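Example 3.2
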Amino acid sequence: MQTRILVAGLLLASASSAQTYSPRVGVVTSLTGAEQAFGDQHERGYTLALEDINAKGGVLGKPLEMVKYDDQSKADVAVQGVSKLVDQDKVPVVIGAYASQSTGAMVPAVIKRQVPLVIPTATADNVMASKSPWVFRVCGGANDYARATMDFLKTVGVPKSLAVIYENTNFGQANAESMRGQAKSAGVPIIADEAYAQGAPSYTAMLQKVKEKNPEAIYFASYLLDATQLMKQSRQVNLNPRIYTSAGTGFAIPAFISPEKGAGKDAEYTFSTQQWMRESKWPGSQSFAERVKKRWGSDPSYHAVQAYVSLLIVADAVNRAGKWEPQPIRDAIAKTEMMSVFGPIRFVNQQNQHPILITQVQNGAFVIVAPEDQATAKWILPTPPWSARP
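Structure, written as tokens:
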């Protein structure tokens, strides 16, 4: 009798531990909150990818479905999203999030549940620190941003001094740390190193302090709302470095150059790292941009493309895996090799090998100024002083 009870118990435990997964993809992004502008870009990319995938027959012969979760631009809510998507909705693969803070918080949750996570956007390199075979990143990281920026500065004249201004979050701290390393290697002294609280009412006191140090170059790591205010208030305090540079993000999306939503004319001459542009010499870049603009009325940022290609990667992996189960999907993602609108996709230690562009705002538009084989315009330097601008 005891043996029968033991065997029955083992069978029951085995049955309860077996997971049946839903044939759907889970997505976490910021549809509301401080990072909504970036979540909106994700939403556009996912929408077009889903349409394209299903127009070609879907996945494993059926239309692909997504389950989306709004993290409200909060890390703790993003973690709740993993629980909802995997534990309740039974998805075998998750894409997300936007912010590095939220994505980093999600990583332990997906590792614990042993489902693959595809990261479209988060640039803080510590989101990859676990080295887990369950975590893949499509975008380039903070070290790539800082390296590309310093390479560009070497081309246009290595600055005699540098200020690093960054928001005090995982994203900002990671990008600041990466630039410190690059500056040290290049022999560029950092004479101002300023962290700020995201969404602060004013940055003029901090910017005035930076102005007193008189750096030749400034490197920002900021989201959209802060990027907008930092440039407007740089005009207010008459801060005039030779070059304004940034770690992409808030300085790199169409809303930043918008007179209504962003810095408008105060965005002129700023440099930014970018991961994609409509002029990028990768197949489908221009047509993708035209589709987005026709449908939503504005140009896409690289965040839309990152979301678009992330869903394509997952759909391709499931088709090659032949089943909706986490480990086969994970193994197929690891072996991905494709050319895409985001360039070639190939993972080395779960990190896609993605090149970085440098853009400058000229006449109210982003133009590519580096690398040379991607450039569409010549850079303008030194940055005109505010007194010489309209």
